[in-house]
């Protein structure tokens, strides 16, 4: 398996619900095996359990809360996400921001439960602060490019290289991936050249008319 990762965030796009989501999960398993690329799928929360029985599909939660098991109605409790089949979680996504102290608690809890933490940041300076919390990955995503179809690697390449530097200067172990506007294979290869260890993508796949071909296109540059 390559060290680079690809994360598909389905958000709450209706195009990745029901049978369409099941089909996408099959593609994830196929492409991941064929190309040897680690691919994580972050489905709408209500679908996590349904997908957990599928072989070779690594699931992430789109968000985790710091609340504990028990009387915590409506929260995404990490222990329960694990029981439901998640391997880890996105944390502090631009569309679901939380405070630094809650990020800290969530990352610590994920690590204790052997789950992957992917903390999102909007700027290299945020990357610098968040790297101190020792997550597995930091995903740099300029919010104005999210869903734009204009890739961060194209529009603001220095944000990726600066984020890699910002992370490594405080914590050499943390890996930086990037997202926002990624729609083409070249966007991915550029990101890797700039020092990223993978990508976080949503609409490039969820809105594609041919999800299998698009997934292959975006995963290929991540293969060894
Ligand atoms: O979580 C990924 C996301 O915020 C990027 O969205 O649609 O620009 O790939 P998109």
Strand content: 15-25%
Provide the list of bound ligands, each named once.
SN-glycerol-3-phosphate
Structural class of the secondary structure composition? alpha/beta
Main β-sheet description: 8 strands, parallel, barrel
**Any idea what the radius of gyration is?**
16 Å
Tell me, rounded to a whole number, the average pLDDT.
96
The parts where pLDDT drops under 50 for at least 5 residues are none
Number of helices: 10
In angstroms, what separates the terminal alpha carbons? 8 Å
Order of helices and strands: EHEHEHEHEHEHHEHEHH
Main sheet: strand order: 1-2-3-4-5-6-7-8
Overall 3D form:
globular
Number of strand elements: 8
- Approximately how much helix is present in the residues? 40-55%
Task: For the structure shown, list the relevant keywords.
224 residues; 8-stranded parallel β-barrel; single chain; 8 strands; 10 helices; binds SN-glycerol-3-phosphate; alpha/beta; 17% strand
In words, what does this structure look like?
This protein is an alpha/beta fold and 224 residues long. The chain has helices at residues 18-35, 48-51, 78-84, 100-112, 124-131, 152-155, 157-170, 185-193, 203-206, 211-219; strands at 5-9, 38-42, 58-61, 86-91, 116-121, 137-140, 175-179, 198-201. It has an 8-stranded parallel barrel with strand order 1-2-3-4-5-6-7-8, surrounded by 6 helices. Helix 1 packs parallel to helix 10 (211-219) and helix 5 runs parallel beside helix 7. The radius of gyration is 16 Å and the shape is globular. The N and C termini lie close together (8 Å).
